[in-house]
Amino acid sequence: MAPPLKTNIILQKASITLEELGIHYEVKNFEISQNVQKEDWFLRINPNGRIPAIVDKTATSDGKTREKRIFESRALILYLCQRYDPENRLNYSYDTDQYWEVVQWLVWMQSGLGPMQTRQSRQHHIVQLGLTLSQVKRINFYRYALEKIEYGIKRYQTETRRLYQVLEDRLALQAKTIDKEGPWIVGDRMTTADIANFAWVKAGGMGGYPCDAL
User: Residue 89, class by beta-carbon neighbours within 10 Å (0-12 exposed, 13-18 middle, 19+ buried)?
Assistant: First the structure.
């Protein structure tokens, strides 16, 4: 196994999924601050020039070689589970109620918690967590803006707190209704919904208030 990717929230989701499924993989490190992700070789993998992205060189079932490119963290997680998790260790069987519940919480994270928490993060965490240049440009009413705009600070911090409460309420409900180890976001075991949300919750102190205030 490659060493887990610890320096980037988005990359952690991919790394944890790969590790949990026991997939052999290699990591290519480069400096995004130098726009390596905008070079032609990377744009052939991800035309959007963003991380994460993978190239799956595993042979097909009939032995043919290939290089399957996958970009965007949600698509990456879906692909890995569809191809390498037939036992549904990190998901549930397709078209079951629990399957679609997992999908909904993944989309909730990607359209809500992730963007909101990013926009109100501290500047020094941008460096520590390796956020992309596009994220740097669109965040930080709290620390990055030359002028402190209280409306922006309160807007995104308030919305992030609200989203954390949604997650807290979900876990509290799960703890009451599922009599097993957990609670997990969906069902009675860890799924990709937990993995995706964990990466952001782990960095919950980024927004200018202590984690226990979330």
Answer: middle
